[in-house]
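Dear Dr. V.,

Thank you for agreeing to look over these. As mentioned in my earlier message, I'm a first-year student in the group and I'm still getting used to reading structure tokens, so any feedback on how I've presented them would be very welcome. I ran two proteins. I've put each sequence directly above its structure. The first is here:
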Amino acid sequence: MQGKRAAKRQLRIFMLAIAFSGLILMLLLRMAWLTWLPSSAAVSGRSDHWQGESVRQREWGIILDPGRADFVDRSGHSITGETIQVLAAFPVQYGTWGEPDSIEELAAILQTDRKQLLSWLESLQEPRFWSASSSRQPLALTTDQIAKLDQLKLNAIRVLPFYQRYPEQFSAKHVIGYLSQHPERMERLYPEQLGKGTIKRHDLIGGSGLEKSLDALLRGVGPTALSHYTDGSGIPLQGLGVRLASPTNPYYPLQVATTLDLELQNKLERMLGAAGLKEGAVVVLDAQTADIAAMISLPLFQPQQLDAPGTDLSNHALEAVAPGSIFKLVTAAAALETKTAHWNETFHCSGEYGRYGLSCWKHGGHGSLTLGEALAQSCNVTFAALGERLSASEFLLAAEWLGIGRQVGWNEPERFNLLGSPLRLLEEEQAGQLFAGVHREAAEQAPDGGKRLLAPSWSGGVLQAEVQDGGVMAQTAIGQRDVQMTPLQAANLMITLLGGGEVRAPRLVTEIRYANGQRMMELPAQRAESPYGRISPATARLLLRGMEAVVARGTGQTIRHGVWEVAGKSGTAQTAVAGQPRNHQWFAGYGPVEAPRYAVAVLSKNRLPQSSNQATLLFRQVMDLLAAHEQERADG
């Protein structure tokens, strides 16, 4: 009897063992099937392969630092980039952030109400940083706020270090530029990276300035990101904590050393704003190197909110507009170089030219005066007469010699190449022009080595038919009609004359360094000489003497007194806005005269016709600020 009971018990144990083994086998087969299930298997619109779905349910990432290179000024002071402490929240199941009292305290620390905070937390579809209601930027936490937050017990809410490229107090610099989304350009420039998935179509890309021209170098090797984990229902997984992932390359991010003087740039921005410059630009070049010490364009823009009211993304320092009488320097150079006129030749100004509706700005005229005096007094009648003596080709070649009508900013077509294109630091720089439809292509010297062109050899095909018209030539000579130049070219024209006719290429970047300080590449100073020659040092000296006379006893007498003795040339060009007459007002010059330190161009755009020349007054203020800035540096 006992033997039968023992046999039945053994049979039950055996059957249970078989059943248990079968269950284990089924689980193993199920796991194997799930593991080997192809990710391309048919799925519903709300799901994906189980592996991807599980990861997506559990891991939430947020970028703390994109790894983009930063800019510094010529003294090593940071222009972009600042690490701040911010509050980040990750999507979790409603009510799992912490105890009600903790949420109440959190709202008080963030200076918001509990209802608004809970609404924000509940709305999260992805990790986000807490930001002030008036800004799109993450809110920088104070030391006191951080200390209080450390005492709270919260889930999926953390204080994190965040790289902020453009801090709230950052004053936008058009030469530095901005970042924006531009999917089409991303596809054109980075098809390989898009294919590999290392970047996305809607990632930020440089939109202007150095951010755009150096984008391929600035992008770095990847971001620093933080991941937070939850289970499939959105409940934080205790014990897993967070995971920080960052590039392991010790050479990145890079650092770009610019020629800008950040302190000077900021001082000028404040001064120009206080002086009432509404629309225009100021360019400050180092007189010895042509390096760009400061470049201001107004109105400014907000890099954190590009569509803000009053935003102007255009860099007016690189846009070509009518220069007015500043161009008389080019006309005088053409006349002197071709021996069409000489410095002491006498002209007569009665106030009216007698043709083409041209008249002098001075009612009743200047009477008899030499070419040098005509430059100092900016006599329209004298320069209109010179214009009719010159040919279009002579005008074009003189401008070519002086760096006008062509891009002069630093570029390197051979040694440096980014994404298959030559490196040009100022991509937005416009070339300008002398005659409509006529563009720089080539020049042709006379067989005897002289500088007078035998025939027009500039693309456009309209020189003989149109430009030989006397009215066109007379208006061109005074910087009107179709003549256009940029403030950068105007400032660089001063450098060219100070250098005896040698054209320099204004530089904005000196070198690019690795994260460890090692130099990656140097961008040396360059000349921008024309292949067709240059003006003579003698002509350059005469034009400098003429600009000294402008301030000493000519149209610039109002700015004669100041810290430095200065020289320069004013200009006023007629234009129109919405059919209403307006003037572009200019002044370009240098100082101090005895030992030039800076060359400066000031443009005040779209001023009322009867208003005084604001650019002339601003030039004096800029020069006085430069003198004070130099003294501060010397005192040290």
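The second protein is here, in the same arrangement:
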Amino acid sequence: MELNVLSIIIPVAALIIGIVAGKIIFAANTKKQIEEAESQAKKIVSDAQTTAETLKKEKILEAKEQIVQLRAEHDKVVLEKNKKINESETRTRQKEQSLTQKLENIEKQSKENDAIKDNLNRQIEVVSQKRTELEKHQEEHIRRLEKIAALTADEAKAQLLETLKHEAQTQALTMQQEIIEEAKLKANKEARKLVIQTIQRTAAEQTIENTVTVFNLETDEIKGQIIGREGRNIRAIEAATGVDLIVDDTPEAIILSSFDPLRREVARLALQRLVTDGRIHPARIEEVVEKTRKQLEEQVLDIGERTVIELGIHGLHKELVRMVGRMRFRSSYGQNLLMHSRETANLCATMAAELGLNPKLAKRAGLLHDIGKVPDEESELSHALLGAKLAEKYGENPAVVNAIGAHHDEMEMQYVISPIVQACDAISGARPGARREIMQQYLQRIKELENLALAYPGVEKAYAIQAGRELRVIAEADKLSDADSEKLSFEIAQKIQTEMTYPGQIKVTVIREKRAVNVAR
């Protein structure tokens, strides 16, 4: 490439020199000048040719050096490629040798496996022969046993199965009892832990209400004013409030008697206003009672609003809020209904939080679970179903409606919070001191408990002790065995659990003993 460049440069340089010489010649005015110019031109051309030749040689040398360098680099690349090819061929040969060795090992192992297989086949044949011989001996042995025992194999098998069945039933009952006891222990332990934590985190407040209210007076002279001429004032009060006024020899006190705490509160507040005002006559009594009733309705609504605000419950319908306030003047077995509902709500929220559920929804259901006890109108429905109907009417969450209706098992539980509300209702109502149980109901429950145990065959006596929390059963030793006693205890406990309603738990103890009595004379 450089030689081609030189071949182009030299003629160009000569052309340029010729043009310059022509100009010199043209510029010369004399022949001498022309000769000198020609001489200079020839000299310039000669110098240019010499320079071009020198440059040509230098470029040729540089080109040769570059060719030598490129050839050296090419040889180096070729050597490296040859080296890599040799290394690759070496690795390939090694892999071939390894694969050849593995194939030889596989063939060797296959031959060994064939030998082992042949050996196993021979052993299987021997085992088959021995099994055939054993079956023949077993058949002969069975025939001899049948001849000795005078029983066929099927009859002996039936007897054996019957014996094994009886033993299996006994063992299964024992195992079932142990499993149930262990499960109860674990479940009771976890449940007790959860319930204790829930109760400890809830500040319980309890108010015991009676069916009477005592109205205190400053002096006994006011009794005459309350009674009025020929008793017209007291009759007007009783007619307006629906409360019986008992005026007896109790100093400075009048007793207000009514099953409805709301009516008693209206009568108490109306009497307080009448006594303070001093004007007591039928027209004034009716006016004061009506004003008091309206103010109490406002107070009921205020109590309901304060309750839902304190519990952090939002969006409750106004009628439901009013029913919550009415709970303040209602009691169940001596337990104030509003306090019971608040306590149940707090227990539900705590227990739901412990179980990872929605505590606000559980608290709402706990507060409203007994609203069926304070309806505006009488209904034939139970308080649980009526409460569910009211909650549904006023747009409550379906989970809350179901929890209200199902807390006495009168409706199928469809949501997780329903059993929580039921459990917390039982915790609040059944804990010691929460409620007063009527004596007749208590005696009836004790009697039913004893009769339930006496209905079983082999039971001689049954005693309900420790206030009905333990049932002690005396079994007849001649009719029941120890295993039967365990079974009897289990069956009685299951029947009590399914057929009876009771607070807490009942322990069933079956006692079986054999007594030998003789008299020395």
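From my reading of the second output: The chain has 15 helices and eight strands. Strands lie at 212-216, 244-246, 253-257, 331-332, 335-336, 459-465, 470-475, 507-512. Does that match how you would interpret it?

Kind regards,
E.
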